[in-house]
């Protein structure tokens, strides 16, 4: 995330006045329908890997699969920070964040440095493009790409890797996805998501928004960096409250 030490676990609420309703309708950060949670993330953000894993597992446990969907939005760290998401910083997070959710899948990068992903934009475009097929296809591709990077050490910057991962999901029409990637037609949507997140409107990766305007940034986790910032020091988790995901999903279900 751009603010990697963020303590933003409060789920904010708004009153139901007509003016606020109009404001919510005009807010590009909010999902278009009550059955959807907008999830701003980058694919190579460890905090987002934890969040997406918890969203899926909590939804399954609550029996909300097929009722509440995740609209995965791009929060491209490389654009916010104007540089590659540095491997030393990413590596420093793995043991700390991996200890919170080991089942999400983690492993230190084993390949040569020149095989490390330099960009996530093509993969973010693929996740968006899959929405034209279904929410399920997009969700499954997003989760599979995260696991491909974090647990399997695959270079998700590359077209053939993205398509191989899509094929492995069994949920994505790979031919249709390839056509969209090759045409570049998903890039404007990703850039629009980036624009909607700028100027502090989205605090970090991950940041979740409900249809009624409630939101939670880096849900349940309060972290800080010691001995230097990202890429030099390492994160310390001061608080972790995974139960907040049940609250978020229950609130989303209550909007249906």
Automatic annotation (TrEMBL):
Basic and acidic residues: bias regions: 1-10
Species of the source: Streptomyces gardneri
Protein name: Dithiol-disulfide isomerase
Stretches assigned to coiled coil: none
PANTHER family, A to Z: GLUTATHIONE S-TRANSFERASE KAPPA, THIOREDOXIN SUPERFAMILY PROTEIN
Disordered, as annotated region: 1-30
InterPro entries (UniProt xref): DSBA-like_thioredoxin_dom, Thioredoxin-like_sf
Origin superkingdom: Bacteria
UniProt entry keywords in alphabetical sequence: Isomerase
Boundaries of every DSBA-like thioredoxin domain copy: 36-213
Gene Ontology MF annotations: isomerase activity; oxidoreductase activity
Species classification: Bacteria, Bacillati, Actinomycetota, Actinomycetes, Kitasatosporales
């Amino acid at each position: 995330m751009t603010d990697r030490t963020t303590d933003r676990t409060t789920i904010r609420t708004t009153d139901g006045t007509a003016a606020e309703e109009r404001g919510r309708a005009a807010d590009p950060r909010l999902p278009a329908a009550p059955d959807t949670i907008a999830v701003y993330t980058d694919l190579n953000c460890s905090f987002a890997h934890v969040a997406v894993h918890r969203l899926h597992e909590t939804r399954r446990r609550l029996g909300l699969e097929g009722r509440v969907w995740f609209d995965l939005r791009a929060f491209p760290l490389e654009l916010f920070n104007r540089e590659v998401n540095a491997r030393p910083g990413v590596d420093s997070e793995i043991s700390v964040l991996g200890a919170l959710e080991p089942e999400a899948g983690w492993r230190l990068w084993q390949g040569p440095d020149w095989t490390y992903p330099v960009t996530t934009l093509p993969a973010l475009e693929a996740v968006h493009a899959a929405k034209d097929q279904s929410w399920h296809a997009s969700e499954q591709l997003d989760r599979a790409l995260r696991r491909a990077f974090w647990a399997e050490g695959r270079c998700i910057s590359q077209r053939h890797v993205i398509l191989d991962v899509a094929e492995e999901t069994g949920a994505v029409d790979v031919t249709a996805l390839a056509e969209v990637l090759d045409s570049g037609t998903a890039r404007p949507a990703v850039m629009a998501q980036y624009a909607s997140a700028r100027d502090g409107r989205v605090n970090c990766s991950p940041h979740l928004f409900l249809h009624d305007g409630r939101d939670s940034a880096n849900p349940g986790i309060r972290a800080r960096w010691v001995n230097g910032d990202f890429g030099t020091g390492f994160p310390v988790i001061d608080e972790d409250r995974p139960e907040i995901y049940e609250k978020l999903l229950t609130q989303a279900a209550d909007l249906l």
